[in-house]
Design brief:
alpha/beta, binds NADP nicotinamide-adenine-dinucleotide phosphate, 42% helix, globular, 7 strands, seven-stranded parallel sheet, 12% strand
């Protein structure tokens, strides 16, 4: 090929368009009825990504149990999810308390039977420089994200081992489990622990027929995001040389290798696959659904901006 050929080739090159759009809402990748007769318990299933995951199981016939602390929000999510066809129970619970965790399983069993699928989606998070983090902030995020996930998983495992039945656990993680998460020391440490639990328990419980996998969302904005996390997205959308944050999906899209953010239903589809009969030999694995954002490296490193500066904080003073 000559340079002239190359030039005319380049003239015809289209601008990059990113990864194609996902299938439309309301569709499923699995056969209808895949989860008929299966009880699926989703922590934090009353909001955000947890609700989106619950919705995809419901479309495939599952009976749902959603559990979290805020009763009102749970009830309204229950009514919304019930519109998809299946039965839904909403059980208030703080997953940090092992006795309340046992009560959720009792309530699920009384309503529909022992959950065959557990999705540990509940977590807590907010950005803070490590030097400013209070003991309470650390404990609260680690207790909910890691300890709560363990208590839920242990109760699920105990009941299945007793009953001699198989099951599937999906722990919702975060990619900073591998990379560390500047500005999120508590959550990144907790998510690394969650990923470790996936690998440990898959081996411990494989002999009993219990699969344990992880599932990591990328940037998937949703209407229930907390103000802290929404503020972080606004910062992500702002050019680094401007301090005024600009909201908007176009700015966020252009910062992803996929040239778009993810949609919550794409996480839901992945969850329904991981717990399905088509993924029975997948266990101990953590699947990242983020359009390769976590693999991103530039040819040129961007200028370092401290976490304090990114959060607009004054220099640290005791
Ligand atoms: P979110 O909006 O912060 O929702 C967290 C959910 O957990 C809420 O439903 C909350 O309900 C529940 N929860 C919190 N503390 C609880 C407790 N002590 N006991 C029981 N339930 C509790 O989170 P999200 O954005 O939907 O994210 C869902 C999962 O994806 C999380 O594991 C998160 O770490 C992970 N993730 C999200 C993103 C993203 O882009 N959104 C990216 C990476 C990873 P109550 O307040 O009613 O308790």
């Amino acid at each position: 090929m000559t340079d002239a050929d190359n030039e005319s080739e380049n003239d015809r090159t289209q601008p990059p368009r990113g990864l194609p759009a996902p299938a439309p809402p309301g569709t499923s990748a699995l056969p209808g009825g895949t989860y008929d007769g299966t009880v699926v318990l989703v922590t934090g299933g009353g909001s955000g990504l947890g609700k989106a995951i619950a919705a995809e199981f419901a479309r495939l016939g599952a009976d749902l149990v959603i559990a979290s602390r805020k009763e009102e929000r749970l009830k309204s999510a229950r009514d919304e999810l019930a519109g998809l066809g299946g039965r839904v129970a909403a059980v208030p619970c703080d997953i940090r308390d092992p006795e309340r965790v046992a009560e959720v399983f009792d309530a699920a069993q009384a309503a529909f039977g022992l959950p065959g699928v557990l999705v540990n989606n509940a977590a807590a998070n907010f950005p803070v420089p490590a030097e400013d983090m209070s003991p309470n902030a650390w404990r609260s995020v680690v207790d909910i994200t890691l300890t709560g996930t363990f208590f839920m998983t242990r109760e699920f495992g105990r009941r299945h081992l007793t009953a001699g039945t198989p099951g599937s656990v999906i722990n919702i993680g975060a990619s900073y489990a591998w990379t560390g998460g500047p500005g999120f020391a508590h959550s990144a440490a907790a998510k690394a622990g969650v990923k470790s639990l996936v690998e440990t328990l898959a081996v411990e419980w494989g002999p009993y027929g219990i699969q344990v996998n992880g599932l990591v969302p990328g940037l998937m904005p949703h209407e229930d995001m907390t103000a802290d996390i929404r503020g972080n997205l606004d910062r992500a959308a702002a050019p680094m040389d401007e301090r005024e944050p600009r909201s908007g999906s176009r700015e966020l899209d252009s910062r992803q290798p996929a040239l778009r953010v993810g949609t919550p239903r794409e996480l839901g589809w992945a969850a329904t696959f991981l717990a399905s009969p088509y993924a029975r030999f997948i266990t101990g694995h953590t699947l990242v659904v983020d359009g390769a954002n976590w693999q991103r490296r530039g040819l040129v490193s961007p200028e370092v901006v401290t976490v304090r500066e990114q959060l607009g904080r004054e220099p640290f003073a005791r």
